[in-house]
Structure formats: structure tokens, C-alpha cells
Amino acid sequence: MWELYRRRLIATQIFIIGVCLVMRFYFDKTWLLAGICFVVMQVFSLVGAAWGNTLARRIEQARDELPLNRK
Hints:
The chain is mainly α. It has one domain (about 1-60). It has 3 helices and no strands. It has helices at about 1-5, 10-25, 30-65. Helix 2 runs antiparallel to helix 3 (about 30-65). It is elongated. About 0% of the residues are buried.
């Protein structure tokens, strides 16, 4: 998942910045709220990548086990 995150880093950053700019100018929110939105989206993009990495690792471990060894 980290590889996928790295490949999509530029597109993700453009999307996050775009959402914050729309929030600021279209919905007429303050820069503070747009900044908070930016930080929250950055943090949870990393959390999502870490969670996806954990799930991918669990799936790979399940594939490598023998069927009778599964609990």
C-alpha cells in the first residue's frame, strides 16, 4: 500500500489542496478552517495507507498458509 500511496502522492496532494481551496472560496470558510481540513486530510491519508498496508499483509499471510493450518 505504501507503494500505491507513493505513486498517487501528487494526485492526492492536488485533490486535498483543491478541496481546501473550494472550501475556502466557494463555501466562504476561513483560512483557519481550510487549514484544519488540510491537516486532517493529510493525517488520515497516511492512516489510510498504513491501514491498507496492514490489510494487504494479512491477506498475503493468509494466502501463504496451508488450508489446514488456518484457525
